[in-house]
Specification:
499 residues, alpha+beta, six-stranded mixed sheet, 14 helices, 35% helix
Length: 499
């Protein structure tokens, strides 16, 4: 290993040295990057796991003293199952999950609108869609990342980059250096805000990126404590049954889903009547004061659910610290990378949760970014920029498809405007089940795998898009095969004659 590289943090605008208390840059072999990941969420943790397997050094910087994920429903589709198998997480995930079973759409009096029975998707796609509570996945990922790699209470205030590297400065006065900065810090990303501010000053920020995220809904979410199966037979089922209820004459929709450990996840969604109301509620409820939550709860307590009586009953069965109120925001940003900085997950694209693709997209981002970094040719600025450009080129199309599907699903499941109610009626009554399955199969074709690990063999009968190979990994495997062949020949050859 070479000694610490001669790296002096410099402001890229005026080349003035930054006079801050600064740690030494990490040691480098001149080829393998050191990645600074800001944000210890699902995307950041999964990226860390992949970088560790790739032999790429990294550190994670998390603004919170302790990360507390929302106690909400989380879904991982077949798209990421092969990669989870590659890294040894698939069986552990199954142990904390239930497979997706049937789904039903009902009206507020529990009149059935449409029912989608559980099909044997495992034979077709090779995997089940898995349902679980978000904290369970977070705990699983966190257990795979060395504790010393995560630095908590590190609120990033600014980031500077130049041809030598990148530096972040935190609120506690500490600074850190690396070759690549990854913003995995969520929808209100400090790294994205810092990057966009820089690009705006340079006059190169797309006008679309300067606009705020759309906020059409707010919701209350929670997961109950383990329930008594005699009182709530729903929790004994070995598959997750999703029930979506549409309010009539109201802007509310709500849902119920049984998950592992005899728990039930529930969600109540309120659609804003206008953009003005959205902005007004944002100002009033920036910290979701308890009295505001109590008002929300009082309005929804009597909403009926098929498995557990009412939403109020589910709320009473949920620990108070397991209830959260959040905005449902959406935006697909145009800028995902610049220089040595790159964004993944909600920092690059915030999807509505209606299609259950937010966590899926974050995992897929991590896979493709890790693949690109593994094939990085050198630590030069042009090679790093080329790798990050390739990451966005591979990911933008699939994310756009998932973004549009999430918006469409939100119209069907949560929309309460006249247009959305008409659209829901058409989707329920006129779209054949065969077309729905065809669309699902099309979405399941994209299953990116980790290119520097042995690939998971194709499962199921449904088609899968080809995997982009890693040139570096192919060369390494060819060298291994050649070495093993030479060793085998040497072992088979008779010993040289002696005189």
């Amino acid at each position: 290993m070479n000694p610490h590289r001669a790296y002096k943090p410099v402001n890229e605008f005026d080349d003035t040295p930054v006079k801050l208390p600064s740690q030494l840059p990490p040691k480098s072999d001149g080829k393998t990057p050191h990645v600074m990941i800001v944000g210890a969420g699902i995307g950041g943790l999964f990226l860390a796991i992949l970088l560790d397997k790739a032999g790429i050094s990294y550190e994670i910087y998390e603004r919170a003293p302790v990360v507390k994920p929302l106690g909400s429903i989380l879904t991982l589709s077949v798209n990421v199952m092969p990669a989870l198998e590659q890294v040894g997480l698939y069986e552990e995930l199954k142990a904390i999950s239930l497979p997706q079973g049937g789904a039903q759409l009902l009206y507020e009096d529990l009149e059935l609108a449409i029912e989608l029975p559980a099909g044997n998707t495992n034979n077709v796609f090779g995997y089940d869609m898995l349902l679980f509570c978000r904290p369970k996945l977070y705990e699983l990922l966190l257990s795979k990342v060395p504790a010393e790699k995560i630095h908590y209470s590190k609120k990033v205030l600014s980031a500077l980059q130049n041809k030598e590297g990148v530096m972040i400065r935190c609120a506690d006065g500490t600074t850190y250096h690396g070759d690549i900065l990854c913003g995995a810090d969520g929808a209100h990303s400090a790294i994205r805000n810092n990057l966009f501010r820089t690009l705006k000053e340079k006059g190169v920020l797309p006008s679309s990126d300067a606009k705020e995220m759309s906020k059409g809904f707010t919701c209350l979410v929670g997961t109950t404590s383990p329930l008594d199966p005699e009182k709530y037979p729903l929790v004994e089922k070995e598959i997750g049954i999703f029930s979506q209820i549409i309010g009539r004459g109201t802007r509310y929709t709500w849902s119920e889903l049984n998950i592992a450990e005899k728990r039930v996840c529930w969600v109540v969604v309120n659609q804003f009547a206008s953009l003005e109301e959205s902005e007004r509620m944002k100002f009033r409820n920036s910290e979701w004061a308890p009295e505001i939550n109590d008002q929300f709860i009082s309005q929804v307590r009597d909403f009926k659910v098929p498995g557990c009586g009412t939403i109020g009953n589910l709320i009473d069965l949920t620990p108070s610290d397991g209830i959260s109120r959040v905005y449902l925001e959406e935006k697909l940003f145009d800028t995902w990378n610049y220089g040595r900085t790159v964004l993944i997950g909600d920092a690059a694209h915030k999807l509505l949760p209606s299609a259950g693709q937010g966590a899926v997209c974050a995992v897929e981002d991590s896979i493709i970014l890790a693949n690109c970094l593994y094939d990085l040719e050198s630590l030069s600025q042009p090679h790093i920029e080329a790798a990050l450009d390739d990451y966005k080129k591979q990911r933008y199309g699939p994310v756009k498809t998932q973004f549009d599907q999430s918006k469409l699903n939100a119209m069907i499941l949560n929309g309460q405007t006249l247009l959305e109610r008409c659209f829901r009626y058409i989707a329920i009554n006129w779209v054949p089940e065969s077309m729905q399955m065809k669309n699902f199969a099309k979405a399941a074709e994209y299953r990116p795998q980790v290119s520097f690990l042995p690939l998971t063999p194709k499962k199921g009968t449904a088609p899968v898009l080809p995997q982009k190979p890693s040139k570096r990994y192919e060369k390494e495997q060819e060298l291994k095969r050649k070495t093993l062949k030479e060793q085998a020949l040497a072992e088979q050859s008779p010993p040289a004659a002696t005189i």
